[in-house]
């Protein structure tokens, strides 16, 4: 396997019950590469992340991480292989404390220090149940929890949802810093164009369960109108 | 031409076999079978509550036992103020009302509001069985541990007089008639609008409530109906057996009924009824030769069926045939 | 009976019931499995002590062997039977019900249907508030308290417990964080079985050891977790205190039958008035 590929998805078909949402999707992500996934509602972005994470079983196609098949593995094996997941709606453990949430990101960690370095505001509330945090802080917690185990690939689903714009920027910068320093790849599903463009080196557009186009991040930042052309498909 | 459902054909076939049986079977077997038919009635009651309405009862023996004791106390002239009343017919009415009302009351306590989680309803009924058994053992008026002895057989007269029904063959046909009528009646009820509402409720109670059904009242009524049928079974058992004991009302019969229904198939009343008769026949065959190993074998088969054949053995067979026929 | 003795016996019953209910509750909380064979795990614990005694081993060796032995039975049962029914809640009841029948019948085959007695270790008696009280019963209370405290420490002071609480709250998310939920299920079931085994072993000298020994504990333990409320670990303890206390008290002033009836009626009233239990807590359905 070439050094240039971390995640390689080929011909992926997946969905819920009888209905398929992904129809033969292909996507590759390089090591340390930040990719944004865009497209209208219902084109299968969240389904793609869930399938990569093992929460949905693919009906066809392959998913490889560093050349090794991970499709069909249970989520915990995929997590241990180096993929972390921040789901839509964050899903922090509301009744557990901030610190406990962070430790759950890496049960082998000596302490939750890594999480607090990333988002120092969490340290002040370490003993509080996560359910009492604001939406933005819960999002920070979910991201910090995902980063505890030093993943090679982070799957992020709509992190800006319900979060103040100023906090979104702060989160994006913190994430970009970690990704650059540790060579962590990111697959970001995002409707918020500012956030997507701030983070992504490449933007992939999806429609009806497939990848239909892609653009370099620099080209889009230079000419944001190109974005509209893809999204008004 | 109207095409029949497989399960109805199986039911008619079983009925035909049973109708013809007294012509070839020895009379002791016919007598045993008459008694098994009252167990089948209990299994049908449980399959209705559990399979059709999703109300898993681990204490259905309670209603069977109440029916038996009700029949016994009345026909033995034990009811205070009603000592002169000895009618089998009133005994049947008393048994059905007492057991149905008990089931309704249990439903009133457990189905209120959001109600108990289906599984915990099962636990409450299990507790009920344990409590009622203890109660029967310690209630001297009901004969305590010994139970009620010498319960009279069915008498055809209006008040315990007239001809007695104890010959195996007529008893068998009476029992068969009651069972067939009950299965037919409950099946028709299951396929009626209200029965379909109950099935919808079993699948998704929240949705049924959103559609405007008073699910608590529906479940209460269905459980009362099931309890009444179990009470009828108990009453018809005791007039054959002549003896009502605490074992009928408690844990062990409840457990057995559950096994019959799970092995036969809870999805269809006919499967449950066929299952219990087959199992009782096997039971009389093997319980003496295998002794204590037999319950172990039954337990293992039961576990295997729960895991591998949730439709039950008869139910799975019916399902496969139905799929072949496309009906 | 002397008041002090009465209270101590009541405390004894409550503590054992707490231990039994706790095992049931952690298995249900984590795995959503209603384990009707829990009473039989208790019964097995008592038989382990009996068997150890018959093999000439000292009582305390039997007591120490019982929890791991029963936990092992639980581990096997989980692997062979219970895990195949996880997605069907009502079927977990049936499967464990079948297991309970098989375990009871196995006890009949090995030791006969009759009851056996285990001689309690001779620890003498102490005088408490003017009446003598057997030391062994005090030891049973200490064992229960220690085991309850240890279970709490396991769930609230260790990483295993943290992972378990995460699975209780949100199984899918916990799995996405790298927690092997299968392994956790297996060990939780074993711990639950072990707790029941310990309760049975400690109670063995105080009860008639027979195949039906577990049944009498199963129903009160379930009523305790129904009354106390599910989804929290404190609920079953509160429920057990209520159920066990009421039972002992009524049994002392009236009779065991009235006690059973009173407990059942009280439990069903609580269920009617507060269907989520006394210590209600939100549970995430996921």
UniProtKB/TrEMBL annotation, chain A:
InterPro entries: AAA+_ATPase, ABC_transporter-like_ATP-bd, BCAA_Transport_ATP-bd_LivF, P-loop_NTPase. GO terms for biological process: L-amino acid transport. The keyword tRNA-binding does not apply. GO terms for molecular function: ATP binding; ATP hydrolysis activity; branched-chain amino acid transmembrane transporter activity. It comes from the Bacteria. Keywords: Amino-acid transport, ATP-binding, Nucleotide-binding, Transport. Residues 7-233 form the ABC transporter domain. CDD domains: ABC_TM1139_LivF_branched. PROSITE patterns: ABC_TRANSPORTER_2 (PS50893). Belongs to the ABC transporter superfamily. PANTHER family: HIGH-AFFINITY BRANCHED-CHAIN AMINO ACID TRANSPORT ATP-BINDING PROTEIN (PTHR43820:SF5), HIGH-AFFINITY BRANCHED-CHAIN AMINO ACID TRANSPORT ATP-BINDING PROTEIN LIVF (PTHR43820). This is ABC transporter ATP-binding protein.
Automatic annotation (TrEMBL), chain B:
It holds the Pfam family BPD_transp_2. It is found in: Cell membrane. One of its GO terms (cellular component) is plasma membrane. Keywords: Cell membrane, Membrane, Transmembrane, Transmembrane helix. It is a multi-pass membrane protein. The chain crosses the membrane at residues 36-55, 62-82, 88-111, 118-137, 171-189, 222-245, 293-313. Coiled coil: none annotated. Its main location: membrane. One of its GO terms (molecular function) is branched-chain amino acid transmembrane transporter activity. InterPro entries: ABC_transp_permease, LivM-like. It comes from the Bacteria. This is Branched-chain amino acid ABC transporter permease. It comes from Thalassobaculum fulvum.
UniProtKB/TrEMBL annotation, chain C:
PANTHER family: ABC TRANSPORTER PERMEASE PROTEIN (PTHR11795:SF447), BRANCHED-CHAIN AMINO ACID TRANSPORT SYSTEM PERMEASE PROTEIN LIVH (PTHR11795). One of its GO terms (cellular component) is plasma membrane. It is found in: Cell membrane. Pfam families: BPD_transp_2 (PF02653). The keyword Cell membrane applies. Its main location: membrane. This is Branched-chain amino acid ABC transporter permease. GO terms for biological process: amino acid transport. It comes from Thalassobaculum fulvum. Keywords: Amino-acid transport, Cell membrane, Membrane, Transmembrane, Transmembrane helix, Transport. The chain crosses the membrane at residues 12-37, 57-77, 89-114, 134-155, 187-209, 221-243, 249-273. It comes from the Bacteria.
């Amino acid at each position: 396997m070439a050094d240039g590929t971390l995640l390689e998805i080929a011909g992926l078909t997946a969905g819920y019950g009888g209905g398929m949402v992904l129809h033969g999707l292909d996507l590759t992500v390089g090591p340390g590469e930040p990719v944004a996934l865009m497209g209208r509602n219902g084109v299968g972005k969240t389904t793609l992340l869930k399938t990569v994470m093992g929460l949905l079983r693919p009906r066809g196609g392959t998913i490889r991480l560093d050349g090794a098949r991970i499709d069909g593995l249970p989520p915990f094996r995929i997590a241990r292989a180096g993929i972390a997941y921040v789901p839509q709606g964050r899903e922090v453990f509301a009744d557990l404390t901030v610190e406990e949430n962070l430790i759950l990101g890496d049960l082998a960690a000596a302490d939750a220090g890594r999480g607090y370095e990333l988002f120092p505001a969490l340290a002040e509330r370490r003993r509080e149940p996560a359910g009492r945090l604001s939406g933005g802080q819960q999002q920070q917690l979910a991201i910090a929890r995902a980063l505890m185990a030093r993943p090679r690939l982070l799957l992020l689903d709509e992190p800006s949802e319900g979060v103040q714009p100023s906090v979104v920027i702060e989160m994006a910068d913190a994430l970009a810093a970690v990704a650059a320093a540790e060579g962590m790849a990111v697959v970001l599903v995002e409707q918020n164009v500012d956030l997507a463009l701030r983070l992504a080196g490449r933007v992939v557009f999806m429609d009806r369960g497939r990848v239909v186009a892609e653009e370099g991040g620099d080209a889009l930042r230079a000419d944001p109108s190109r974005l509209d052309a893809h999204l008004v498909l | 031409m109207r095409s029949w459902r497989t399960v109805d054909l199986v039911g008619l076939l079983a009925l035909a076999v049973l109708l013809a049986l007294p012509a070839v079977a020895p009379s002791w077997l016919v007598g045993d079978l008459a008694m098994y038919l009252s167990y089948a009635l209990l299994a049908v009651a449980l399959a209705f509550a559990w399979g059709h309405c999703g109300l898993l009862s681990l204490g259905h023996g309670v209603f069977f036992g109440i029916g038996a004791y009700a029949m016994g106390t009345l026909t033995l002239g034990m009811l205070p103020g009603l000592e002169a009343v000895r009618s089998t017919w009133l005994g049947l009415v008393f048994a059905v009302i007492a057991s149905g009302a008990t089931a309704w009351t249990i439903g009133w306590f457990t189905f209120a509001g959001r109600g108990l989680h289906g599984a915990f309803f099962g636990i409450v009924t299990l507790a009920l069985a344990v409590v009622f058994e203890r109660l029967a053992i310690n209630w001297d008026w009901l004969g305590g541990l010994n139970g009620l002895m010498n319960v009279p057989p069915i008498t055809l007269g209006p008040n315990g007089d007239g001809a007695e029904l104890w010959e195996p063959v007529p008893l068998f046909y009476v029992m068969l008639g009651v069972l067939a009528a009950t299965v037919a009646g409950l099946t028709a009820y299951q396929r009626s609008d209200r029965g379909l509402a109950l099935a919808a409720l079993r699948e998704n109670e929240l949705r049924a409530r959103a559609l405007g059904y008073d699910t608590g009242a529906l479940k209460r009524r269905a459980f009362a109906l099931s309890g009444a049928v179990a009470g009828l079974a108990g009453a018809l058992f005791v007039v054959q057996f002549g003896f009502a004991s605490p074992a009928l009302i408690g844990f062990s019969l409840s457990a057995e009924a559950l096994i019959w229904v799970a092995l036969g198939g809870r999805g269809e009343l006919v499967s449950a009824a066929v299952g219990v008769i087959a199992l009782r026949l096997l039971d009389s065959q093997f319980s003496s030769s295998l002794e204590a190993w037999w319950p172990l074998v039954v337990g293992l088969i039961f576990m295997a069926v729960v895991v591998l054949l949730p439709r039950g053995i008869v139910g799975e067979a019916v399902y496969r045939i139905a799929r072949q026929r496309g009906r | 009976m002397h008041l002090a003795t009465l209270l101590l016996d009541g405390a004894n019953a409550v503590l054992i019931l707490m231990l039994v209910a706790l095992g049931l509750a952690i298995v249900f909380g984590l795995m959503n499995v209603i384990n009707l064979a829990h009473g039989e795990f208790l019964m097995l614990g008592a038989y382990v002590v009996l068997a150890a005694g018959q093999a000439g081993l000292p009582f305390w060796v039997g007591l120490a062997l019982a929890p791991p032995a029963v936990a092992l039975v639980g581990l096997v049962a989980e692997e062979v039977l219970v895990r195949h029914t996880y997605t069907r809640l009502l079927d977990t009841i049936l499967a464990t019900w079948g297991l309970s029948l098989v375990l009871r019948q196995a006890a009949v085959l090995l030791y006969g249907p009759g009851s056996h007695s285990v001689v309690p270790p001779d620890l003498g008696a102490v005088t408490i508030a003017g009446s003598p009280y057997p030391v062994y019963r005090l030891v049973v209370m200490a064992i229960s308290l220690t085991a309850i405290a240890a279970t709490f420490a396991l769930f609230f002071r260790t990483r295993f417990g943290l992972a378990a609480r995460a699975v209780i709250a949100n199984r899918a998310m916990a799995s996405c964080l790298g927690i092997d939920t299968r392994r956790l299920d297996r060990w939780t079931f074993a711990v639950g079985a072990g707790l029941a085994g310990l309760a049975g072993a400690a109670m063995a000298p105080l009860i008639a050891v027979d195949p039906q020994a577990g049944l009498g504990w199963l129903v009160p333990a379930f009523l305790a977790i129904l009354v106390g409320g599910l989804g929290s670990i404190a609920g079953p303890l509160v429920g057990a205190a209520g159920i066990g206390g009421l039972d002992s008290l009524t049994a002392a002033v009236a009779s065991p039958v009235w006690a059973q009836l009173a407990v059942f009626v009280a439990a069903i009233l609580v269920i009617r008035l507060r269907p989520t239990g006394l210590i209600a807590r939100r549970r995430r359905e996921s």
